[in-house]
Amino acid sequence: MARYMIKEKWETQKIVMLIEMGLMPIIGTVILMTSSLDLFNPIWLINCTIDVCGMVIALLLFMSVIKDRKDLTVQTACFSYMLVLTSMILLSDLVCWRVSGIPSKRTIHLVARECYFILSSLIPLMFWHYVAEASDSEDPKLDLMSKFADVICLISIFSVIGNGIWKYYFEISIYGTMKITKSFPLILLYTVIIVIMCFVLILRKYTNTEKRKVLLTFITMPALAGILEAFIFRISFAYFWLVGAQLLIYGNVFTQRGKELAEKNLDLMTKENELLVAKQEHQRLETELNLAAEIQTKVLPIVFPPFPGRDEFDLYAKMTPAKEVGGDFYDFFLIDDDHLAMVIADVSGKGIPAALYMMIAKTMIKNAAITRATPKEILEFVNQQLCEGSGGEIEMFVTVWVGILEISTGRLTAANAGHEYPAVKHIIASPSVQEEEVEEEDRKNRKFDLYKDKHGFVLGGMEDMPYKEYEITLEKGSTLFVYTDGVAEATNIDNQLFGTERMLQALNQNPDASPEELITNVQKSIDEFVEGEPQFDDITMLALRMN
Prior knowledge:
It is a single chain. Helix content is about 55%, strand content about 15%. By secondary structure, the protein is α+β, with helices and mostly antiparallel strands. Strands 4, 5, 6, 7, 10 and 11 form a 6-stranded mixed sheet that branches. A 5-stranded antiparallel sheet has the order 3-13-12-8-9. It has a two-stranded antiparallel sheet with strand order 1-2. Helix 4 packs antiparallel against helix 5 (about 105-135) and helix 8 packs antiparallel against helix 9 (about 240-300). Mean pLDDT is about 85; it is low at about 430-440 and about 440-445.
């Protein structure tokens, strides 16, 4: 019920309740000031004064609540409703005292008493919802108990309303005084049930001893005050002491809860600021990585055919980068009119450092190649430069395959520094077959196989490493295919590797295809194999066919 009573706009609620609570002590004071002096008696005066003082204290306490609590929660609402209800009960009690014993005011007395007991039924309900919400318990039984409290509260209210007709609890006599019946204790049954529920909940759910004591005081103080009323000159203590108990709740539990919420909000704000800074840093890094990827792509030759007018060979290369900037690269360039240099390499690591290392290695290899150095000399020179430049502090290395093709003869001189084996498709002709019949008779002998060359050590790993070079003759129709480990190590959902066997199958689907078609076929085969799984490494391929 408490949740349904909470309105959306807390500001409007505060103003309405503040006006109500501000008017109540004024109305009470006016009633006192306008009463005839002959009506005054000590008991009447003491009770009415207590009621007005209680309304003033409730007003001041409510003003403190709306000053400290800027947001509307169930706890804030329940506590505020308790203050408003208490003030209304005190005003009803004051009216009852004012008209008690005046026969002509019997109707006013009955209405005031009815209001007094109806409002008294709502106070325990609000306290139950306050205690249940403040316990921070997610026990589903708690929701059922709250619904039970709502139902019996409604029953109690309707029973009080029915008393106005059937007089089974109390009635106002012809003399203007209240006369209770034997069934009057039943009017307190609901309150007793809710008090027991609150008592058990506080003992079970509240581990903080100080909070437990204060909340139990809210139950015991008005009860003890009610007992005292029966013995001390019929003075109305109960709801005045209820205001005092609410003051204790505000001073301890309520303000402590406010401090906890303030600290929690501060922690949330701190975390939000940290997340914002992290997000900004992530965006900055992402921008830098995108820029690095763009630079990395632009330093690679991407115009095909690369050498218009040179129909002795076809050449095509492609790099498919992973999400993160990597260190794969390929390169090709004419050293002179009859010599073509080709390079494919893979730098260890990811990110911007690998990309920078890649560009350094690429530049060194090209500079060494254009001085007409052999592949063996290129690798030895670049390895020495990388090792000396790092001073042993940069734990990065690069695998490289480099080849220099003599275009006029098809003789390829190559060297390998820890890189993948190249794949080569040769033309194998039978001696009995005439030269013009080679293409037709021995087509079935054309296929790609790995050329298992001798690997040297990776570049940048150790100084003074020797490298070996080898020669392959690429005849008319022969094709060379080199690649990085991103091809063989492409992984599917079952954590299986694509491998070189599947790569060769893809190449041999149409071994006579152009270099671009060969690379497209391999890429398509990889995509079908991984079935959409994320790519963790760059996939780089280069193919050359002799015409």
